Queue: 4 jobs
Job 1
Amino acid sequence: MTTTEPGIIREFQGNTYRTRAWSCDVRVVVEDPSVLHRVAEDVDALLNRVDLAASRFRSDSALTVANAQAGRPTFVPRLLSDLIGIALHASLATDGAVDPTVHAGLLDIGYDRDITELPTARDALSGRIEPVATPPAPAARPTDCGSSRLHDWRNVNLNREVGLLRMPADVALDLGATAKARTADLAAGDAAIRYRTGVLVEIGGDIAVAGDRDGGWVVEVSETGAAGDRDGRQTSQAITLHRGAVATSTTMRRRWLHHGVPVHHIIDPRTGAPADGPWRTVTVVAESALEANTASTAAIVKGSDALGWLVANGYAARLVDRIGGVQTTPGWPLESSALTDDDRRVAS
């Protein structure tokens, strides 16, 4: 996660508010346009609170302070305690595939600053950075989870009632995999209750809906295609959400060059390196954005085991392989048809 971006335009159009935070597009759609500005103010305030609690790029964030205190018992603020607890629960639910202790792995591949400041392939082509003639040797890929590291999520101890955090001195936390989705859930739920309106909140591909809306919310599930795809086009589908959430995890975005080698932000805790499985994008529908994002991220990491794991756990999911082939699990929604103009505005 990263600091809310300065100078970003706050755009209001009809019943929709758009902005950017954490290097992500943020979108809020309400059924009652008369409350949109108040909902937007609440969402912005929540984004700022979470950023101050959980950004690893802010020297004044509670997470940065807690990471610096690793090796000693540390009391953390309530919001950070909740976010750490949620991250640890995600680790338990995914058998460690989603692990907040991958901070070191992110640093190892150069993710030590805002994603917008990292070099991309486009930068290399434009000459803004020098290409590396010989890339570094790939990291070893052990088969047993945690064998490449001394510690993992199981070594993090949190007493959520009092906010007491204990973790080894060589451990630092990154909450990006879960905090963004949790924020979408909180924003949508709070707005629906406070303003008694249907609400959709999207933060960087994590979408939560709450309250009532006739016909539900039409959401476009899409990703940017790649060279060599079977159809050479975007892989997309429109679905209808009546409640709950949908989240997408992908290796196609948040990509940059590290020593001239393309890398992405989804770390496999077993290797400490970017996940390198058969799926480039996974989308999951669940009761909350947190649950959906946890499952979609875990599926990217689990690789060839993802499909069986998703089915065994009852997740409705859509998986896109490296060349654009699509597979779905039982329960995945049918494509929405006969979209109205309003539906198209909401979905896009």
Note: The first strand starts at residue 11 and ends at 13.
Job 2
Amino acid sequence: RIPNPLEYRKVNVNEMWTSIVDERKYIGLDGNVYDNNVHMIYDRQENFLNQGPATMKGIEAYRMMDTVVAQNLVMTTNCKYADIVLPVASPWERYGDLSPSYRESIVWFSQVVEPLFECKSDADIALELADRIGVDRSVLRPVSEKQLIINMVAASQVSPNCDDNWQNLVSITEEDLAELGVEGEPQDGLVPILDFKRDGIFTIERSEGDGLDFIALKPFRDDPEANPRPTASGKLEIYCQAAVDKVQAFGFKEISPIPEYVPPVEGYEETFANWETKEKGEFPFQIYSLHILRHSHSTFANVPNLREAFDHPLYMNSLDAERLGMETGETVLITSKWGK
């Protein structure tokens, strides 16, 4: 791992754009104050302009940069305001990868199609950049992507009884290595490697009383003195001075060491003109985003067939809708003090 010399100069998301556009100093992770004299933004599989605070100020910050490069699978908001967009290959266009979806299962997904047009994997893009800035690509990735995945599969181990008896997940023969076109050593295992690649998943069979149940913090629960938590008291802390000290070091505000309800900015309380009498104000509702089938967070909302298949409705309490004379299927205009 190559250490980041600027690790403690990371910018808090709430100061990201103001430190650039307004040339305001920001507080780093080490508690010191810094200038954010940035000239280039490199976005890698992110969409912070859409998901982070102050989108309009973020766009302004992007336009102040000497160069903006975005690297992504889809055309995100970040990509739209970038000078250069590097298209990334999807998981279906790469050799494959391992995904430990559940503790009882591991998934090995495989390539379906060749990369379209000029798409490259994130790793291949990194290697291409390494060539152009004089970094030895063999230091970044000494083996091919296929060899890397096979190495991961070969090194995977399973403990069927959740004890110290670990076994190789896959068995490998010389013939398997030749068919896969990779280097390696034959080994014994629970499943032939080609069967695992064909099936794409391995699951440990579960049964009642198999001993694979998980109880969080069980050693601590059974014997708190012998198994302390990594806190000042060694216990689960309701009063947490460490949290107070950390927040105070950033210089934003002071917090209580005991959990308490803090009314949020533009929260429920602010929907009232008079909180005591519960008189509603100019903007009497709160709006929040729900997960729907049409998109995933900020992604895929621009896909035509998804837009056709799924609506993007506004949900509201039926009593409020009835009072305002609204019916399902009608088009409404949503306004706030920030826009509409």
Note: The chain has three domains: 7-87, 91-203, 268-323.
Job 3
Amino acid sequence: SVENPLDHSHLVDGINAILGRPSPKTLEREVLLAYARQAIEAPTTLPATDIPSRQPSRATAPDDTVATSFEIPVESLQLLSFRDFGVFVFRGSRIFIGIRCGPVGQNGIGGHAHNDQLSVELQVDCHDLIADPGTFVYTPFPQIRNRYRSAAAHFAPYPAGEEQGNLSGGLFRLDDPWAAACLEFQGGRFVGEIARRKKIIRTTVTIADGLLSIVDESWGCTLARRGSVEPPHFSAGYGEQVRSGVKD
């Protein structure tokens, strides 16, 4: 089978389905019609996220802790904060470290958002050591796209057996997401948390002595280890095709 990211005929089918125009009956058309009806009939407001009334005290021992570290070049770093979007960057002449921690798009509806809160990307000497796998194609293969949206596809913490947000509401929805907040970003240190109801996950990223240290702590849940699930193949670039899983 061949995946062709340049084939947008499924979008034409979707437009025809919404407008009631005749169109060949295809799986893509039926899927898009179902999602279109769901989006049109969906409520315009979402329930407020239930955020815990207090942050966990440092004196309170976490229920679970997972630590990971990587050797990196020692050098001075530039810190870049994009709080409105939810990205925090440590950048040097040889390294790039990106951390996702912020709001879910479209006023909490999701849009293009993935379950990537507190995920980390690492590049050393232009080589990706930890990389986001990309988005895949948007609409023809919902199950595959949702795999790329999942927390396991990213180098991110999440509760064992759960997602950071519900992916079943549609390709452009991320329902009941965990609320994210950056608590500290200075020097060689980042601290962020995600929380939902009585569950909290805190991530501390520290850069010191030639090591990138990532420590995840949780309250009210058990952590899935970052990278324990093999992520999907890196999404092919625009204009490229994938045949039998091998990029042409």
Note: The two ends are 13 Å apart (CA to CA).
Job 4
Amino acid sequence: MEKSAVVFGASGQVGSLLVTRLSEEPEYASIKAVSRSGHIAKLENLPKVTVVKGDALDRASTEKLCSGADVVFNCVGLPYSSKAWKSLWPPITDNLLHAAGSAGAALIVADNLYCFGPEGNQRMPLKATDEEFTSFGIKPAVRAKIVREMLQAHRAGRCKVALVRASDFFGPNVTLSMIGDRLFPSVVAGKEVKLLEDPGFVHACTYLPDFVRALIAVSNDPESWGRAWHVPNAPAVTTKQIIEKSRSAAGFDGAAKYSVIPPFMRAILGWFIGPLREVGEMSFLFSTDYTVEHGDFLERFPECQPTPLETSLKATVDWYRNDYGRSDRD
């Protein structure tokens, strides 16, 4: 049966690639790509895609956009701000649950691992079936709250829901990430990478095309709904090893060139640099080995094998070298 999809956050890093891949899927006959401006140049000429204006904060508009849909994807991205997350994620989540539920559509959510908080550091590798969520901080606590609400909505029969969780992701077109434009521009220029945390811990990372492939796989399998899934990642390595492998892919010797900003300096700079201040409560992500269990996902979706790290880093390095910073890119 051919399906129709609505993608909220279609102009973002995850949403734009998802819309592109959905347009290539035979199961999908039509895709609405929702953005607040109503214009996404790189998506407007794709087959089966209609770019529409909408805002997940507008309940009536969201319900109207979801009417008749089979699947609704939540790929909304918010500014990396505790204030924004605390005030905006709850109504966005409530509106999408209401709209998808009213339409009889499944809500497939591009999720992250924040809901486990620092307590999750004691339960590595993190399991998708683990529902021991955190109350720590602001951003982790907000994510934990809305995850509980979405799972409860499914179990109460209000809306069909599935969560697809990525770790820190990277890849072509990915800039806003812990391993995005903080790392790769320096690598491709052969310069020293400035880091905020100890690069010696193993850290699971998700390649964006693998994330999108997992979202589509779950959307096509109703029996997989009602729970969270963790995206398959290549075997986790340290940030230092990512720098070394990326330098090698960029044609430099593999020795990592980096420096770590001392904690006291981060604290001082955080008073003046908002994004740096926001990273503070997330330091637990890089204070120990951070790994993810995805065996159950591969058992159900064996076609979703993770891209080898050398392959994904080469594609990322090539994009940063050839396309990053171009004025004509969306």
Note: The CA atoms of residues 74 and 109 lie 5 Å apart.
